[in-house]
Amino acid sequence: MEWTFLFIAGLFEAAWAIGLKYTEGFTRLYPSIFTVVCMLLSFYFLSQALKTLPIGTGYAVWTGIGIIGTTILGVLLFNESMDFGRLVCIILIFSGIVGLKLISP
């Protein structure tokens, strides 16, 4: 169950990171509320996952999911580039997440 919590936490991390773009420095009410709620949910699910997962593994996977999700959403929502070098780096992050999952107890 801890890996499910960690995955959910990573999704909420990507959501709040994207939400920051829409808050315009926390000057827009609804995007700001959305962002803060996603932050709280992300930290909550991360804390649940870290009850049993090692902190280094949990934190690395949490940020990795956030990085990948934010990058994909940035490409889709904001027309950010996805050149070859950036794609290779994202694949390396993904492979690190999979590796951590495979070697974790």
Automatic annotation (TrEMBL):
Topology in the lipid bilayer is annotated as: Multi-pass membrane protein
The answer to whether the entry has keyword Membrane is yes
Q: Cellular location of this protein?
A: Cell membrane
Q: Which UniProt keywords apply?
A: Cell membrane, Membrane, Transmembrane, Transmembrane helix, Transport
Q: What is its main location?
A: membrane
Q: Does the keyword Glycoprotein apply?
A: no
Give the matching InterPro entries: EmrE-like, Small_drug/metabolite_transptr, Small_multidrug_res
Q: Where are the transmembrane segments?
A: 27-47, 59-78, 84-103
Query: This protein is called what?
Result: Quaternary ammonium compound efflux SMR transporter SugE
Q: Which organism is it from?
A: Methanosarcina baikalica
Task: Print the organism lineage.
Answer: Archaea, Methanobacteriati, Methanobacteriota, Stenosarchaea group, Methanomicrobia
